[in-house]
Amino acid sequence: MRDIRLKAVVLAAGKGKRLQPLTLTKPKHLLSVGGAPILQHILNCLENAGLEEVLIVVKHMKEQIIEWFSKQNFNIKIKFKEQADFLGTANAISLAEDFTGNQPFIVVNGDILLDAAEIKRITEYHEANRPFCTLGVKKVDDPYQYGVIEIENGLIKDIVEKPSPEETSSNFISTGVMCFESDVFEFIKRTPISKRGEYEITTTLKLAIADSKKIIPYEISSWWVDIGRPWDLLEANRHIIANLTASNKGVVEEGAHIKGKVVIGKGAVIRSGAYIEGPVMIDEEADIGPNCYIRPVTYIGKRVRIGNACEIKNSIILDGTHIGHLSYVGDSIIGCDVNFGAGTKIANLRFDNKSVKVNINGVKTDSGHRKLGAIIGDNVKTGIGVNIMPGVKIGPGSAIAPNITVWVDIPPYKLVNVKLDYIYTDWKP
User: Which residue numbers delimit the Nucleotidyl transferase domain (predicted)?
Assistant: First the structure.
C-alpha cells in the first residue's frame, strides 16, 4: 500500500425535485437532519476519515450552499466547482480532474447519509487494494428502484439500473460512495450521453467492466440512507438522533419529565408538565410549553415554540416554527418559520391501514410507510382547527384558513379558503 492521501469529491448540483416543497426554498443538500444540513454530516464524515481536501460540485441554488459554508469552520480545505448544466454524475466527476491530479479519490453523493465510520473503511479498503474503482454497495430487501450490482468472484460484473425482479437476482445496490484511480477520467471522456441527456457514472463503470478493469465491491454493513424522497429525511433523522449523547444546556422546570436520551440545547426551556421521551433533540432557544408530550424520534429546531398540551411524534420541526396549543404533529416534516394555529392536527394513518401515498413529481407514490404525516414548506400558516391528511404537501408561503380539512397538495404562495352557504330554517327552542 502506498503512502497516499485521498481527496474527496462531493456531488451537490442536483435540484431535488422529489423532495419538494422543501427544496423550493433551499437546495436539498442543505436540508436539515438531526440538527444539521446533510452536507455538514457528509463533511464531518470526511474529516473523521482523515481527508484533508474536498471539492464540492454545485449548480442549483449554489449561492446558498457557498454562503452557508462561508459561515462554518471545518478542518478540511473546501473548494467549489460549478457544473455548467445538469449533465449527470460522470460529467460532475470530470470537473475534479485537475483537483485530484494523478491521485486516487473518493466520490460521495451529496444526498446520502451513512455511519461515519464507513467512509474511513472504504478509503482504507481502496488504498489496500488499489483497483480501478471500489464501489460502496449495500444489501437491501427491495433493490429494484436503485442501480443493482451484479457480483461474481469478488468483482463487480454488471450494473443494472432499476431492473425488474426477472432481470436480476442480486440484492446489492450502489450507495453513491465510490473510490477511483485517476484513470477513470479517460473512461469518462468515452462515456456516451444517456437517453435522459446525461453522462452517467454507471455507464462509465460499464465501459470499464467491458475493458476488464477491476471494480471491487465494499459492502456497507451499518446504516445508510439515500435521501431522495421526503420520508427518507425521517429515516435519516432516526439514525442520527438515536446516536446522540444525552445532554442538557437549557432549563428544565420542576414538574417536567425527561425519559431516555434527550439533548437540550443552550437557552431551551422545558416547561412544567412536559413529558419528553427520547431519543429527542431540542435545539437552542426552543420553548416546550406546559403539558406537552414529545415522543421519539423528534428533532425540534432553534427558536421553535411548542404551545401548551401539544403532542409531537417522530417529526422534524425546523427553526423558528410555532406550533399552537392543542396541536398534533406526527411523522411529519415542518419547514422553517411555520405558524400552526391552535388545534392544528396532522393525520398520519389511513382508515384502511394501508401505506400512505405521496404525490412525487405528479405520480402518486407508495411511501411504504403505514404512518406518514405531512410535508410542510417554509413560512406556511394555518388557522385554528385545521386538519391535514396523511401524505399531503403544502408549498412554502401558503396559508390555510381556519377549520379546513386539507385533502390535497397545496401549491406555494396560495391562500386556501372554502365557500360556505349558511342554511336558515325556522326554529323555536
Answer: 7-240
